[in-house]
Amino acid sequence: MSVSAGRCYWSSVLLVGVLSVFHLRTVAPQHCVWYGECGSSSVLPDKKLNCYYTGPPKALPPEGQPLLRELCPGYDYGNRSVCCDVDQLQTLKGSLQLPLQFLSRCPACFFNLMNLFCELTCGPSQSDFLNVTRVNSSSVAELQYYIGPAFANAMYNACRDVQAPSSNVPALSLLCGKDAKDCNATIWIQFMFSIDNGQTPFPIIPIFSDTAISGFSPMNNETVSCSDILEDGSGPCSCQDCTLTCGPTPVPPPLPPPWKIFGWDAMIVIMWIFYTCFLLLFVGALVCAWCYRRRTLVSEYGPIQDSKNPLCVNGDEMDQVNFSCCERLGERFEHALRVLFTWWGSLCVRRPLLVIAGSVLLVALSSGGLAYMQITTDPVELWSSPSSQARQEKDYFDHHFGPFFRTAQLIITTSLNSTIYSPYPAGADIPFGPVLDKDLLHQVLDLQLSIEGLEASHEGQTVTLKDVCLAPLSPYNNNCTILSVLNYFQNSHKVLDHRVGDEFYTYADFHDHFLYCVSAPASLNDTTKLHDPCLGTFGGPVFPWLALGGYDETNYNNATALVITFPLNNFLKDSEERGRALAWEQEFISFMKNYSHPNMTIAFSAERSVEDEIERESDSDITTVLISYAIMFVYISLALGHIHSLRRLLVDSKVSLGVAGILIVLGSVSSSLGIFSYAGVPLTLIVIEVIPFLVLAVGVDNIFIIVQTYQRDERSPHEEIHQQIGRILGDIAPSLFLSSFSETVAFFLGALSDMPAVRTFSLFAGLAVFIDFLLQISCFVSLLGLDAKRQEGNRLDIVCCVKLPEGQETKTDGFLFRFFKNIFAPFILQEWTRPVIVAVFVAMLSFSVAVIDKVEIGLDQKLSMPDDSYVLQYFKNLSEFLHTGAPLYFVVEEGVNYSSVEGQNLVCGGVGCNNDSLVQQVYYASLISNYSTVAYTPSSWLDDYFDWVKPQSTCCRYYNNTGQFCNASVVNPSCVPCRPMTPSGKHRPEGEDFMHFLPMFLSDNPNINCGKGGHAAYASAVDLSANGTAVGASYFMTYHTILRESPDFIQGLKMARTLAANISTAIQQPVFAYSVFYVFYEQYLTVAYDTALNLSVSVFSILLVSTVLLGFELWSACMVVVTISMILINMFGVMWLWNISLNAVSLVNLTMSCGISVEFCSHIVRAFSISVKGNRVERAQDALAHMGSSVFSGITLTKFGGILILALSKSQIFQVFYFRMYLSIVLLGAAHGLVFLPVLLSYVGQYFC
C-alpha cells in the first residue's frame, strides 16, 4: 500500500530558500546563483535555504564525489567545479526519497527528472538558465528557471505511464497535483516548483521557451526516452511503465456473430423447416394409409382378429404363435413377477399385523438416524463439490493466505440536490454530487461513528468492532479498516470542517481535499493549502472506486452514492471467534433496521445477511408448504373412497386408508433421511423441500392405482379376499415396480453429478422412492385388506366399531373412470383428433428445441430473498451504483525461485522483466477490461520490494550493531542502508540478500519518508516457508470490473481462468485466479453439460429398466423414453417462456420431473402392452380408460391444488423454481401421459394383433 508524502515532496529538492527582500540580481554567465545552505525557511521551518552566491563554481570536496555520482549519475562533472556543497547534496538526497521510490522503476524517467534537479541544484552554468528575482538577506527568495519545452515534454513523456503498483494508479497522480489524466509537462513542473504544494520553501517560476529570453538560455539538456537503454546499462522501462516498449495494443477478439439463417435465428429457422417437413410427411403418411384402407375396405377401428397371423398373441389360438426368444423370455419374466407379487399380496392380507408391525419397526429404526441429522446451510457446501477446481483453489487460498474477509456494507443515497464548487482564485466550476454535501457528510460520519461504537454480546462477553475488524497494521495501529470517503478526513468532524481562507474567500476546504484524495488516496499530505493526509486511519488508502458510486468515468465528484464498507476478519475454523463476528453483525443489522434519517436512504448488508434471510424465508414458508401438503392430504383422503350411495358414505369412504397411505409416504421420506443421516450424509434445504413433493407424487399415484384397481375388480366365485388382492397385486405390481425401480435407478445415477445439491437430492430421492414402493406393496396392501374387510362388514370408516345394517347395493364405476372410458379416451382417439394432437405436440417440441439454447444460465441472487427482505434493496443499489467488482487474486503456487533473476523476471512488471510475465499479462488484460473483466493493473509486492530495497532509498535500513530493521522514520546514526551503493548493490537482490531483506519489507509500515513499506498491502500476500528461507505461494491482487448479473459473473470467471492458464503456460509454473464468488459460479461453467449428462443418464437408465420390466419389449420402452424426453425438452421451453434460469435448483427439479414423468407414462404403456383388445386404437383406449383415471386423480389432481398454494409464497425462489416448475411438470406430464402418449401408441405402439 504506497504512501505519498504528497504530490510535492518534489519541491523539497530545491534545497533553497529565503524570504522577504525583493531585488533583481544579474549573474554573469557560467557563474553560480547560490552555494551552500544558510538558515531555514520561515514558511517551512524544517526546510533549508540556499545562500545567495554569484561567484564561480567551486570544487566539490572528495567526500561529496560519491554522493554526486549517486544522485546525478548522468552528470559526471569530473574535476569541474559545481554550484553546490555536500550539505546541499545531502538535502537533495533526502528530498528525492519518495520520488525515487515511485519513479525509479522507470530508469529513463528518473534520469530525466534528476537532470532537471541536478542542473538546478549543482549545475556549474546555473546563471545561463536561472535568474534570481528576489533575495532576502543572504538567501534566495525567488527564482526563475528557464526550461526548454522539448526537455519538459520529453521528461513528462518518459514518466507519464509509470505506475504505482500498490495503489493501482499512475505515479503522476501522486506527484502532479492533479489526476494523471489532467496532467501535462507544464502543469507537472509548475506544481513541483510552487510554494502551494506545501513542500517548496520559496517560489521557483518555470519559464518555458525554445529561444533565449533577456539573455537567459533555456535548460534544454539531452533526454532519454523510456524505451532507451541508459549509459549505465539500465534497460528500457517495462511496458507497464512505458507504452513505447509495448507491442501493439491488445485488441479483444470480436464477439462471435449470432448464428442466423436468412437473417433469422438459426435454431428457429431449422425447427420451422423440421416441423414443416414433419407435417408434410405425417399428412402424406395419413393420406396413404387412408387410401390403402379405402382400397382394402379395412378400417383401423374394425376388429382385426386374424388368428392365422403369426404375430397375433391376443387371439384365441395362441399355441400356434411363433414366439421369438425375447418374447418368450419376456413372457416368463412377466409370469414370474405376477406369481411372486400374487403370493406376496396374499401373504400381506393374511398376515396384516405381522407385516404392519414389521414395517413400522423398520421405519422406526431407519428414522432413528434423524437424531444424527445434519443440515447444511453453508452455500459453499451446497453448491461446490470438494473435488471441484474452485473449491480446491479456495481451500489453497484459505490455507496459505487466510480466508477472505467478511464485510458489512452501507450504500447511502440522498434526495438532496447537487452543488457547485468554484475553486479559488480561478478555475471552472466543479459540480459535486448530492451525497458530497458537507452537512450530509457530517450526518453520515455520525452514523459511521455510531456503527463503530456498537456493542454486541456473545456468551456473556461484550463484542465491539475492534474485536472483529480487519486491522492490517496491528499491533502498531489498531484502527479498523473502514473503506469510506470519511476516511479521507480521518473520520473526524474537525478535519472535515478544516478550511483555509479569510472572511471573504475560501482558499481551500473539504472540496479541494476530496478532489486531491480521489486522485492520490495514498498521500500523507495533500498539496492544497490544507495539507491534510488522505491515507486512512487504518494505514491504507481508500480507493475512490470502492467508496463512491453512481459517478461517470472517473469523475468521482459526480457521485450519487456513498459506499461504506467494514471488512471483518473471517474465522472459518475458529467457532468462538466466528461467533463473535456473527454477534457483531447481528447487532449491526438490528441497528440499521431501526435507523432512519430524513436525508438518507440506506441499503445495507452484512456477511450473514443472505444466510439469515434464506433461513427466515424458509421459516416463513413453512405455513405455505404445510397448507399445500394439507390440501393434498385432504384430497387424497377423500378421493380414495368410491361412494355408491349417501347411506354408505361413511362405509365406502377411505379416509383412514388415505391417511395411512400418506403416513407411509412420510415414513419412506423419514427412513431415507434417517439412513443417510446414519451414514453422515448432511441434508440440504432442497432435500427437505423437494423430496416430500416427489415421493408424495409417486406414492399417491401408486396408492390410487392399487385402490382403484381393487374397487373396479369383481371377485371370482369361491375367491377369498386375500386371493383377490393377491391377484390384483400380481396384475398391477409389475407396473408399480417398473415405475418405482426406473425412478430409483435414474435418481441413483443422478447422484454421479458433481454438484453437491444435485447429488444429495438424488441419493435421498432414490432411496425414498424405493422404500415407498416396498412399504406400499407390503404395509399398504395389508391395510387395504383390513379396510376391505371393514367395508364388507359394513363398518364405518375411522369408527370401525360401528356397523351399519346389511343392505343390497349396486356396485358402479367411479366418475373419473366413466369419464375417461366413455368420453375422454374415445374423443382423443378419434380418427380426426389424433393427427391434430400429434401436430400440436410436435409443434410444442419444435418450439422448445428452438429456444433451448436461449434458456439463461445462472441464479439471480435476488430470487433467493423474500419479497420483503432488506437485502433486495441492497442488491438493487449494488447493481445500480457500484463501479468496481470483487477483488481478483492471481495466485502463484510454490515452485518459483524468487531469489534468482530468472524467477523474478517470470513474475515482475518492472525493468528487465519478461514481456509475458504475470504482472505484464494482467496489465495487458486491464487494457481491454470490457473484454477481460480485469479492471486494473495488479498490485505487485515484488516490484514494490525492488523499489524499497534500492540502496538509493532510505526505506531499507538496519541497525549496524544488532542487524534489526530500522524504519525510515527513525533518525539514528547507527541505521545504515541494507545494500551498498555499488553497481551490484543497485541491481535487484538475489540469493540470500533477497530472503534476508524480504521479511523486513513485509513488516515495514508506510510512512512519510517511505511509502513503499509492505506491511499493510502485502503482509498476507507472501507465504514464507517455515524457516523463512524461501517464498512459497504468493498472490498479486487486482479487481474485476463491475459484475451485475449471473452472465457477468460467469464471464468474469471464464476470462480470469483463461488468463491464469496463459500465465501458467508462459512462466511454466502453476498459477490460478481466485475471487470470492468463483466457488458459487463455477457450477454454471458446466451446468449445461451436467444437465445434459444427468438427464441423459437418467433417461437411458429408464430405457434399460423399462425394457426388462416390460417383458423385454424394447419398442414399448422406447415409447416411454420418447414421451419422457419430450416432457423434459418442453420443460426447457417453459423455462424460457417463464424466465426460469438453469442452475442447480432447476436441475434438481428437472431430475425430479424425469422421475415423475415415469409415473405419467409407464403405467399407460404397460397397460397398453398387456391389453387384450383387438388393435392399437382399442388397446390405447383400454389402457387410458383403466390407468388414465388413476394417474389423473393420483398425480395431477393431488398436486394441482397443492401447487397453486405455492403461488402465495413470499419467497421468490418458491414462486419461480417451485410453483412455476412444479406446475409445469404436472401439466406437461399430464398432457403428454394422458393425451399424447395414447395417441402415439395408437399409431406406433407394439402391435400384437
UniProtKB/TrEMBL annotation:
Entry's Gene Ontology cellular component terms: endomembrane system; plasma membrane
Record's subcellular location: Endomembrane system
InterPro entries: HMGCR/SNAP/NPC1-like_SSD, NPC1-like, NPC1_MLD, NPC1_N, SSD
PROSITE patterns referenced in this protein's UniProt entry, alphabetically: SSD
One term of GO molecular function: lipid transporter activity
Gene designation per UniProt: npc1
Membrane topology of the entry: Multi-pass membrane protein
Organism of provenance: Gouania willdenowi
Full protein name: SSD domain-containing protein
NCBIfam families documented for this protein: 2A060601
Listed transmembrane segments: 266-292, 353-375, 626-643, 655-679, 685-707, 728-749, 761-786, 1059-1081, 1093-1112, 1119-1138, 1191-1209, 1221-1244
Domain SSD: 621-786
Reactions catalysed, as given in the entry: cholesterol(in) = cholesterol(out)
Pfam families referenced in this protein's UniProt entry, alphabetically: NPC1_MLD, NPC1_N, Sterol-sensing
Signal peptide: 1-29
Keywords: Cholesterol metabolism, Disulfide bond, Glycoprotein, Lipid metabolism, Lipid transport, Membrane, Signal, Steroid metabolism, Sterol metabolism, Transmembrane, Transmembrane helix, Transport
Family the UniProt entry places it in: Belongs to the patched family.
Coiled coil: none
GO BP: cholesterol homeostasis; cholesterol metabolic process; cholesterol transport; intestinal cholesterol absorption
